[in-house]
Amino acid sequence: MHPFAILAVFAVVLAAPVADTSAPVADTPAPAAEAPTPVAARYDVYVRPSVDATWDEQGTWVFGGRADERPIELRLGSGNRGLDVVGQVKYRQKEGMLGLKLRRTDGRLYTSATKAGNADHVGESHWVIGTDDQSVKQLIATSKDGGRTLTGKITYADGEPMEFQAVVAPLRYHVQTRSRGEAQWQDAGTWVMGNAAAERPIMLHIIARGGNNLGGAVQYAGHVGFQPTLLDLIDGHRYQARLHGEDGASTDDAQWVIGNDDKPLLQLYAKSTDGGQTLTGNISYRNAGSREFKATLLDGLTSGAATQPAAGDGEQAATPARSAWDGGYVHDQTRIEISDNASKLTLTTHGEAVEAEITSISGDTFTGDFLTGDDKTPFTGRRTGDTLSLTVLNGDAIEYKAVPADGESNTGD
Question: Is 413 a member of any domain?
Fold first, then answer.
């Protein structure tokens, strides 16, 4: 086994001071944050047996492995009930089709590799396709709007061909609030925030602007400066966002779902230190005091849809206690050490190491890329009880057993 080490960057809620909701938006916006990689390729998927039938939701899927490009054409097929999926993917008109290999690693999660022409396949990223109980036999889809929507035909392993539609998924956040001094977070439901390009907000200040409408300013990951935004109530706590230009004109953008049905929102101030994965700050409802606010992005990768953590579980519901992961795991002469409140994962063999980065995490499942020079090799991992399992692209899962907290640092036999 080749020696390597993993440096993990987990998306966790940071214990930073929250801002006073009475404070105005800062005159100087935060520095532009790097836009997170996986979110651009997430789609809400729908199927129907015929053109006159009702669309049936299939959950959130992930296509493509590029940070700044969505696929515009897909041609996928599987001859072994979804274990291996092969085909082609196209990202832009002038590039042409790329050969594609997908290998299932866990449920709906696949590692991917692409190739151009006669070159070798190169590890790219992770895809999520199919449902919890149906794997993809064939999928052919194209886009006419740069990858924001994909339409075509799909056949599941045990089904007939159906109409297929995939629409770029909105950003869904699990929101929690609590009164100052309270230890327990209270569930506030699933909110939708972000623009039509599915870019994550990293700073926002929203206030009531008359009636039940809202307005304010939002800064998005990858951008410098605030975007003036108006939120016009549609119904309940669903709003139509309108972007306010310098000339005074406004254009419709994405729909937001924020607030509470029976508590009109008065003011919300929140910011992110992790590229929009989490937002923390303060929120005020009418006829109620200020409360601490926390929003955690739902990735929607490990189940049929982006599901909301169970209510009443407090802190654990949105962000499991990573300190419980700290410790060592061994397999033969290789040892994994998780430390620093699970912010670092190191795998060492005979004193030598190769680095990797974690690109996403959900519950006890995480994904990432080993880094060797300019090459990236995707991997997936899962922690179950006292076992940590790692699977590298097209490889077998290797299980590492936990060692006692007072165990020696040497690897097992």
Answer: no
